[in-house]
Amino acid sequence: ETRAVIIALHKKGFTGKDIAASKIAPKSTIYRIIKNFKESGSIVVKKASGRPRKSSKRQDRLLKLIQLRDRGTTSTELAQEWQQAGVSASARTVRRRLLEDGLVSRRAAKKPLLSRKNIRDRLIFCKRYRDWTAEDWGKVIFSDESPFRLFGASGKKLVRRRQGERYHQSCVMPTVKHPETIHVWGCFSAKGVGSLTILPKNTAMNKEWYQHILREQLLPTIQEQFGDEQCLFQHDGAPCHKAKVITKWLGEQNIDILGPWPGNSPDLNPIENLWSILKRRVDKQNPTNSDKLQALIMQEWAAISQDVAQKLIDSMPGRIAEVLKKKGQH
């Protein structure tokens, strides 16, 4: 706007000295603007060319291809490979070029390995239930087992710290070599959390224990949440879940099973998100012994609202659609 005013006054016959008297801008700035206008005929300032790029567009595309061929290659390694193609650039330049293409460095997500059979089973499952609405999923009780460990090892912990505070007592997460682990079994539906039980110490989940849990924990949950309404029960393909005695018992109780559930598919089970919520709440209170940990697990499980459970169930149609979109992949 200032340049436009200066040029407008210049066109009306005002000299640089006259314009400077109005103190609209320093005299040197006014003379430079008038000079540039006489040379270019425009008040738009030309963008400075800056330092020439070290690489051409073709070389940039080559760098992108090298990175996409192996996503784990570091910027230093990429700079060395790029040098063989005739581009002498630093690792920092490599990172800038990749950033221009939207390729940023992030920690790799940890996911279960999917075999061809897993992928096929995931697609079969999702195609079977692709037309189910959130209301349909609201008639399913999801279940799972999960470990809880002392000293904040159950989930991730983020802290905000200043420089030099990495090892400040309030910024570290204590660990022990062999943390005590507590195994729990739980279930939930759109109506809220169901029963949660803690397995006795050093007890492995087998068909006998699983049948005991279903009888003592699942049946009361079905009665409390659904009464005489029809519902489905979800559990994964763990060996003890697929035992003949379990299948027979569920049939005798007239409990219909959702599935068959595809292997290595925690991303399809909303109870995994419920475990994450529970672990964050428990870890936040820093239990220091097994008794406190168990008490907090039961306390925080009971405090999970029906609204949280409903939102997780509502996510099921989107999960199914996403797996179909990814052709069975994560």
From TrEMBL:
GO MF term set: DNA binding
GO biological process annotation, one example: DNA integration
Tc1-like transposase DDE domain: residues covered: 140-293
Domain of life: Eukaryota
Domain Transposase Tc1-like: 61-131
Record Gene3D superfamilies: Ribonuclease H-like superfamily/Ribonuclease H, Winged helix-like DNA-binding domain superfamily/Winged helix DNA-binding domain
NCBIfam families xref list: transpos_IS630
Protein name: Transposase Tc1-like domain-containing protein
